[in-house]
Design brief:
- This protein has 82 residues and is α+β, with helices and mostly antiparallel strands.
- It is 30% helix and 43% strand.
- A four-stranded mixed sheet has the order 1-2-4-3.
- The longest helix has 12 residues.
Length: 82
């Protein structure tokens, strides 16, 4: 799965939803962003990286790999307003 480098627009999100309404993407997160945030802060960071607008919930994370000082994380979540 390719890394998402910019937030998805609403029409892009709709194309990527699975049959159960979940979105799965990979994001690149700086290691220090993980250390500096609590869960709520990290969820907000993921939301900003994934969506241009909207809210993610029922979030699941899976570490895929590392890249320099960053971590590639697979995020699976439901999206509000879609």
């Amino acid at each position: 799965m390719e890394i998402l480098y910019k937030p998805l627009l609403k029409h892009e999100v709709k194309k990527r939803l699975d049959k159960d309404g979940f979105l799965t993407v990979c994001i690149l997160v700086d290691f220090y962003d993980i250390l500096e945030n609590d869960l709520e802060g990290f969820n907000n960071l993921a939301e900003e990286k994934i969506l241009e607008e909207g809210i993610i919930f029922n979030i699941k994370y899976k570490v895929i790999s590392t890249l320099d000082e960053s971590i590639v994380i697979q995020v699976t979540a439901e999206i509000d307003e879609y």
